[in-house]
Design goal:
This protein is mainly alpha-helical and 213 residues long. The chain has 10 helices and no strands. The chain has helices spanning 14-18, 40-44, 67-80, 83-89, 91-112, 117-123, 127-135, 137-155, 158-168, 171-206. Helix 3 (67-80) crosses helix 8 (137-155). The model is unreliable at 1-51 and 59-63 (pLDDT under 50).
Length: 213
């Protein structure tokens, strides 16, 4: 957990800061106030003048993150939220998204005249390739879980993740976890429809407009 250290710095007046101190100032008896006016003895006996200037305290660095404890808390959270099961359901959708990203890279490869053998294999996957991917699902999920633990550990404290874990262990939290993939899918589908509508509307309304010369 990140320790937040607040350091109070006392600033002496320029006149006092510039006065060299050759020997400790002798202690004077306490003076009295006459008619509400400070006597010279009181000025001399001020706390800043009666003791040598002390060095400023060093600024303390934040304590290092206890990443092991955070990753352990993240692991508990992911188990309680059934994260692995939800990721397994969406793995095919993730593969399709990866194929689209690779397709963009392949287009650039074609433009640059580079080797397209991998691109052709992805565009027309063989049975052997599909079988290899099916065998890799468990390893893929293991890496996704490990990466997710690191992401949660950087974003949340142990106490925060434990609180989220307690939520996912409640009936409402379990229902939220069950419905989350469907909710996200519905939201993304509606967002794409809204974006398409605005995109086609903007294109239709500006199609006849000439570019400025």
């Amino acid at each position: 957990m990140i320790a937040r250290v607040l350091i109070a710095v006392s600033l002496a007046s320029p006149a006092i800061a510039q006065t060299p101190v050759s020997r400790p100032t002798p202690t004077r008896p306490s003076a009295t106030r006459l008619d509400g006016v400070m006597t010279p003895d009181q000025h001399t006996a001020s706390p800043l003048a009666s003791r040598p200037a002390q060095a400023q305290p060093a600024v303390q660095s934040p304590a290092p993150l206890d990443m092991d404890a955070r990753r352990a808390a993240a692991a508990r959270l992911l188990v309680a939220s059934r994260f692995r099961e939800r990721q397994a359901v969406t793995i095919q959708e993730g593969l399709r998204a990866a194929e689209l990203e690779v397709a963009d890279e392949c287009l650039q490869r074609a433009i640059d005249g580079r080797n397209l053998q991998t691109c052709r294999a992805i565009a027309n996957p063989s049975e052997a390739m599909r079988a290899r991917l099916a065998e890799s699902v468990s390893a893929i999920l293991d890496e996704v879980i490990a990466a997710s633990q690191s992401v949660y550990a950087r974003r949340f404290t142990v106490a925060e993740m434990d609180e989220i874990t307690r939520f996912f262990r409640t009936p409402v939290g379990q229902r939220y976890g069950d419905l989350y993939p469907q909710i996200i899918s519905d939201v993304q589908g509606r967002k794409r429809a809204i974006l398409r509508r605005y995109l086609t509307k903007a294109a239709a309304e500006t199609a006849d407009q000439k570019a400025p010369s």
